[in-house]
Design goal:
single chain, alpha/beta, 9 helices, globular, binds 1,4-dihydronicotinamide adenine dinucleotide, binds ligand LO7OFUQM
């Protein structure tokens, strides 16, 4: 998709990947409605991005993705401000093995809700123009990891859901594409908290003592590496059903290149 003139909705955009993806789209001439549960972080990012790209190009909305009404309001506010939605990025996520039910709510249920809401708004029958939905999974959506079992389950779920909808001829006929991004370890606050504990000092992964060894073995990507892959997906002529993994050793690699189910 050509990004210039398009409108994107991004969840979890106050910091980390969400903020970097917002900036990358703005740089290419899109308008961005980004959201987060973190109001002060969101307002700070709004201020920085508006200074660079103009007040009329970027808009922050407070949205806890686990609250259906707030999620619906995010779409309403984007449509009211920018009149259309062409790109949806379900990026908000948490890593918290002690709160595995919450991990399912944020990483899985909310990602599904964001996808269904975007499908509704992008449907030409509802005044939409089609579009692209990118769901942020992880290398943890492709491989098991005994220090992150609940997180791994949610990230596998994202791939199953997104790849299945991408096969649906209905959405294909509406000009809607769905793809998944699978970054490996990347230097954001999520990684720092996994290594050192969260703001309250609680550990978010099992066996944090193993972190150093695992990271030394697998390496750490930069946010720029992942943003480059994100933009590649968005700008591709057809990204439907794509699963793009990025890790330090291999770089970018498309997975499940055969997009059909063996028996269907
Ligand atoms: N950092 C890493 O190594 C990797 C991260 N990911 C995924 O990338 C996505 C972004 O992660 P990072 O930028 O690294 O993390 P981060 O922790 O820096 O940013 C996540 C953002 O999501 C927001 N958020 C959390 N719960 C929310 C909720 N209920 N409603 C709305 N916003 C909420 C947070 O306030 C924060 O601004 C997540 O889905 C994560 O699972 C995937 C692979 C690797
Ligand atoms: C050991 C330190 C754990 C820190 C975890 C912090 C953030 C991780 C976010 C992720 O999304 C996890 C990404 C990848 C891990 C999953 C599988 C690792 C195996 C990948 C491989 O073999 O290349």
């Amino acid at each position: 998709m050509k990004v210039v003139g398009k409108v994107a909705v991004i969840t979890g955009g106050a910091r980390g990947f969400g903020k970097a993806f917002s900036e990358a789209l703005l740089k290419r001439g899109a308008k961005v409605c980004f959201s987060d549960i973190d109001v002060s972080g969101g307002q700070q990012s709004q201020h920085e991005l508006a200074e660079k790209f103009g007040e009329n190009s970027v808009h922050f909305v407070k949205c806890d993705v686990t609250k259906e009404e707030e999620f619906r309001d995010l779409f309403r506010e984007c449509l009211s401000k920018f009149k259309k939605i062409n790109i949806m990025v379900n990026n908000a996520g948490i890593l918290d093995e002690a709160r595995w039910e919450k991990s399912i709510d944020v990483n899985m249920t909310a990602m599904m809700r964001g996808t269904y809401l975007a499908l509704e708004k992008m449907n030409p029958k509802n005044g939409g123009e089609g579009g692209i939905i990118i769901n942020v999974s992880s290398a943890a959506g492709l491989y098991p990891a005994h220090f992150l079992p609940a997180y791994v389950a949610t990230k596998h779920g994202i791939l199953g859901f997104t790849r299945s909808l991408a096969m649906d001829p209905l959405y294909q006929s509406q000009g809607i594409q769905l793809a998944s991004l699978c970054p490996a370890f990347t230097s954001t606050n999520m990684l720092t908290e996994a290594i050192h504990g969260d703001a309250g000092g609680r550990k978010t992964i099992l066996y944090p003592d193993l972190a150093k060894t695992i990271i030394e073995k697998l390496g750490i990507c930069s946010v720029a590496d992942i943003t480059d892959a994100f933009i590649e997906l968005v700008e591709k002529e057809n990204c439907n059903g794509d699963v793009l993994m990025i890790n330090k050793k291999i770089g970018k690699q498309y997975q499940f290149v055969n997009k059909t189910t063996s028996r269907l």
